[in-house]
């Protein structure tokens, strides 16, 4: 009966964790919820697929002018954001860019960069006529405003190649190099001037890679980062209480097996990502992942070798099981943070995970104190009982 009543509880925790990580992003900021202090309204807006960026725009076909507002978060507080049209290709070379950053006085400014080639990223005039340029910052977002007059060939095509990017620093007008992660490399697409599109046509390969990275991250956060610590807390703080045996055991096992299955899926996607990302290696994250998989596999097999409570080897099995378990706990949480540093999601997601871990740590600390009170009281009562 304990098995049937405890397993659903762990499944509820599992389902709730996945819901938090998969459903809550849908409630995050979108372009339709954004308002501008200058009260400018745009005909269309897009949630760009990478770098947590947004584009608002209005195209006036009568004078081929494109009014835009680009919204993004720089990769560092002193960083920059950029939005560009490339009339000759889909990459950075040839991009006609609007770049916003804080000047030496801390005031937001917009500059133009005609990127003729990858080795020449300097401030220069664009091939297009640009007007009404401005920039501001609030709520962690920088915004670029501007109006671009498109040449006739681009206007007739009805579509333009757009590129967006964020960077870490600016030194006397020289832009610090942006990251070369999948999100940065995939920050490009086709913009339909008519507003008919509901999304951005992007590089399919880069988009798929980003999707796989996000799946990999979600699976590992749920498994090593949430479910496994919950399973450890259950085993350590439910077991000492009378009446909880064997319920605690089945609940502990179901949580840890769920964590292992999801973790193996995340580990597999990580291997796949590694094979598809030639030249990109995250040695520490990869090595920790391999170690986690190996140790967890040993733990699973150790379950089948678990001696009975009165067996002479049970003491040594407990030392092994607890030692490996706490090692997995520490390494799992550490590797989740390593993964977050690699993925670089919006700051709120890292903050959310830190909050979850802090809550679990608080529960563990409180449970530790309660458990010791119960155990010491039990020992005290036992020592005061008269002996025969």
UniProtKB/TrEMBL annotation:
Membrane-spanning residues: 217-235, 247-268, 288-305, 317-337, 352-375
Species this protein is from: Dipteronia dyeriana
Cofactor(s) annotated in UniProt: heme b
Amino-acid positions noted as binding heme b in the UniProt annotation, renumbered to this chain: 216, 252, 285, 321
Keyword hit for Cell inner membrane: no
Entry keywords, A to Z: Electron transport, Heme, Iron, Membrane, Metal-binding, Signal, Transmembrane, Transmembrane helix, Transport
Membrane topology: Multi-pass membrane protein
Cofactor, free-text remark: Binds 2 heme b groups non-covalently.
This protein's GO CC annotations: membrane
Source taxon at top rank: Eukaryota
Name of this protein: Cytochrome b561 and DOMON domain-containing protein
């Amino acid at each position: 009966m304990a098995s049937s009543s405890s397993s659903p509880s762990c499944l509820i925790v599992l389902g709730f964790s996945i819901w938090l990580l998969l459903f809550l992003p849908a409630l995050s900021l979108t372009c339709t919820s954004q308002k501008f202090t200058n009260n400018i309204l745009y005909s269309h807006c897009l949630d760009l697929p990478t770098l947590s960026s947004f584009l608002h725009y209005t195209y006036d076909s009568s004078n081929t002018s494109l009014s835009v507002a680009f919204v993004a978060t720089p990769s560092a507080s002193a960083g920059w954001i950029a939005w560009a049209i490339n009339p000759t290709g889909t990459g950075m070379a040839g991009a006609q860019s609007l770049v916003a950053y804080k000047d030496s006085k801390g005031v937001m400014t917009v500059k133009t960069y005609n990127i003729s080639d990858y080795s020449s990223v300097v401030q220069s005039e664009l091939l297009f006529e640009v007007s009404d340029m401005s920039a501001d910052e609030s709520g962690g977002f920088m915004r670029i405003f501007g109006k671009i007059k498109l040449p006739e060939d681009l206007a007739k095509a009805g579509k333009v190649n757009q590129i967006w990017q964020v960077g870490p620093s600016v030194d006397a007008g020289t832009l610090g190099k942006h990251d070369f992660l999948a999100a940065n490399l995939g920050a490009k697409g086709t913009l339909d001037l008519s507003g008919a599109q509901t999304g951005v046509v992007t590089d399919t390969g880069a988009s798929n890679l980003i999707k796989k990275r996000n799946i990999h991250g979600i699976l590992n956060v749920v498994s090593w980062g949430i479910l496994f610590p919950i399973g450890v807390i259950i085993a350590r703080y439910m077991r000492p209480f009378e009446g909880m045996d064997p319920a605690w055991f089945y609940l502990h096992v179901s949580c840890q097996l769920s964590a292992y299955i999801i973790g193996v899926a995340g580990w597999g996607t990580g291997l796949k990502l590694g094979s598809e990302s030639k030249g990109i290696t995250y040695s520490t994250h990869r090595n920790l992942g391999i170690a986690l998989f190996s140790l967890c596999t040993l733990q699973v097999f150790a379950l089948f070798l678990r001696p009975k409570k009165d067996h002479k080897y049970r003491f040594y099995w407990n030392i092994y099981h607890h030692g490996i378990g706490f090692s997995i706990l520490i390494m799992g949480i550490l590797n989740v943070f390593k993964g977050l540093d690699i993925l670089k999601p919006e700051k709120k997601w890292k903050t959310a995970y830190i909050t979850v871990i802090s809550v679990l740590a608080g529960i563990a600390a409180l449970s530790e104190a309660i458990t010791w009170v119960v155990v010491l009281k039990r020992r005290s009562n036992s020592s005061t009982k008269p002996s025969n």
